[in-house]
């Protein structure tokens, strides 16, 4: 065990903790967006979804990701060997690093810490998926969705697109923060979930017993965005290699640097936040001023390790308008999701494609000290391969999402009963009704300020807060 390895352990451990703060930030954002009668259940479901997704990934998901390196290093029977070594009960997971042969398992300690990073990564996926079914999807199907996505689908997407020796990366597909494996996968699943669950009562048309989803306190959401802004830079820096004597490389083996990546992250906040603020003031929708920050870093996420700060500023500014356009498209089709599909799917696809322009011609792929098909930086980034990556991941996520979510809908059902939705999930599941001054069902028939002929106007669910 070297001092160098311990320093990398600490670095990735800090990144892991910061990813968990991202889970908390998503919880705070949703706590402000839901009605008071659903806040407790929202927190509980989100935490359980995060734990299930992260825990499920630890069983075999990390081992699936490791297959790419076993293939690059020409290990005999790479698939079975990687799964044998790195599943939850494998020797590389159940032994201390000093008990393992360094010629067979080099830097095992670092890879063990990185497994915890992956679990936190899966937890973020579970938390985001839960956000797509707020206030209407039952707990059990939501838990199954989180476990299957985190334990199997996200790892398969990681194997395909995230890591310098992954099949698509090794041909030129570039990613940094998990645009393909996290955001696009979650975005596709969230779209299917929101579509099949249907909109919350009163969202797009008047309902006789409820005013519809009015956020209880956007201050909580603003606090969540602030937590996200502090945690994300430390978490994202974990998406790369620290190479003593050389410097910092992006996870796809791109030449990068701590300083530029950190600067790019904060530049993405500025660009996305300003774009979101413009939209917010033009539409009187304060949520866009908050979502703009997330739109900025997601929209620039695949380029953060390769772009110049001025490029990231432009890319992130445009990302806010891409996210807003995706949201308007969802409204047109009657799909009730303000943030996950617009951010993760709309922003994710934009991020993947624009990285092919920002990084066109940059070297990527391969692995340290190898030659031939896996030589370091033997591939080049281009728009064509970025688009191929989008098509592949959308197909993988779409087919798997339809199978799982439609299967749940046809068997145990997705949605709570109308009576439970009106009463509130805190009272339904936890015997915890909201206080008299909150949005309890006895007062939900009150007129909605700003409604036109009893119908909620566009953006009103936020403006009324």
UniProtKB/TrEMBL annotation:
Pfam families: Ammonium_transp. Residues 11-428 form the Ammonium transporter AmtB-like domain. It is a multi-pass membrane protein. The keyword Transmembrane applies. Its main location: membrane. The keyword Transmembrane helix applies. It comes from the Bacteria. Keywords: Ammonia transport, Membrane, Transmembrane, Transmembrane helix, Transport. It is found in: Membrane. The chain crosses the membrane at residues 12-34, 46-65, 110-129, 141-160, 180-197, 218-243, 255-280, 287-304, 310-331, 343-361, 383-408. InterPro entries: Ammonium/urea_transptr (IPR029020), NH4_transpt_AmtB-like_dom (IPR024041). Belongs to the ammonia transporter channel (TC 1.A.11.2) family. This is Ammonium transporter. It comes from Pseudonocardia acidicola. The lineage of its organism: Bacteria, Bacillati, Actinomycetota, Actinomycetes, Pseudonocardiales.
